[in-house]
Amino acid sequence: MSGVAKTTGSVFHYATVAMKADTGTLDLTIYADGVFKQDGLYLEAALRAVQEFTHRRMRVMMTGSIADGRGWLFWLSAKSLPEVKGFSKIWQYGRGDERKIDTWMEGTEVYKEIIVPRDGEVVWKDGYGRGVLVREGEIFSFYSRLDPDWGELVWSRQFPALLARMLFGEEGPGVRDLRMMDLAQVAPVRRAGGVAKEMATGGAIDLGMAGWILIFLLFILERWLSGRE
C-alpha cells in the first residue's frame, strides 16, 4: 500500500506484491453486560470501521457469555474478570470512583474519569497527563467509559484511529489512512461568544469519514430495530 497525504485528504493505492502475506485473522471478542451493553455496540461499530479502513483480517464478536478464546478480549462489565485462557490481550474498564472533569484525551473531550492511582504504561492520556488507558503487561485498563455521557470519544473520528494504533502499532499497515481529514472538514458549526465559527469551504473533501459515520449510524439503527422485534 502507498499513500499521499494532502490538506484536502489522503489517497491510498493497494497493489499485489510478490511476497508472503500475513493471512492470519485477528479475533476481537467483546463482552458487555448490564448498563454497558450500549458501550459494546459503540466499540463493535468502531472496530468494524477499523476493519473496513485498514483492510485487515479481523473477526469481531459480541457475546453475552465468556469462555476461553484467543486474540483480544474487551471486558465491559462491572463484574470482575473471570479466569479465562487463550486471550493474548485484555482490554477492561478500570474500577473506582467516578469524577466529573473537564479535559481532553488524545484530541477528544472527556467529561468523567475514574480517579484512582494508576500504574503501568500510559497508552492514552488526558490533558493533565494522567493515563486514561493504561497498560500493565497484556492488560489494558480504561479509566473512563465508552459512553457519550463520559465524553466525545465514541462520536469522534479519532476513535477508530486510536483503536487501530493500539491493535497494530503506530506504523501498522492501514493505520494512517484513518487520519484523512482536517477537523474543519467534519466538525459542525460551533458557536463561541455568540459568534458562529463557519467551517472551512473550498477544495476537495474526502468523504471517507462521512462514510464511517453513516456506517456507524446504520449499525446502531439496525441493532435498535432488532432489539424491538
How would you characterize this protein structure?
The chain is an alpha/beta fold and 229 residues long. The protein has a domain at 23-168: Rossmann fold (3-Layer(aba) Sandwich), CATH 3.40.50. The chain is 24% helix and 31% strand. It has four helices and 13 strands. It has helices at 37-54, 158-168, 183-186, 208-228; strands at residues 2-6, 9-13, 26-32, 58-63, 71-76, 87-93, 98-105, 108-114, 121-125, 131-136, 139-142, 190-192, 195-197. Strands 4-3-5-6-11-10-9 form a seven-stranded mixed beta sheet, with helices on one face. Helix 1 crosses helix 2 (158-168) and helix 1 (37-54) packs antiparallel against helix 4 (208-228). The protein is globular and about 40 Å long. The N and C termini lie far apart (43 Å). The model is unreliable at 17-22 and 171-205 (pLDDT under 50).
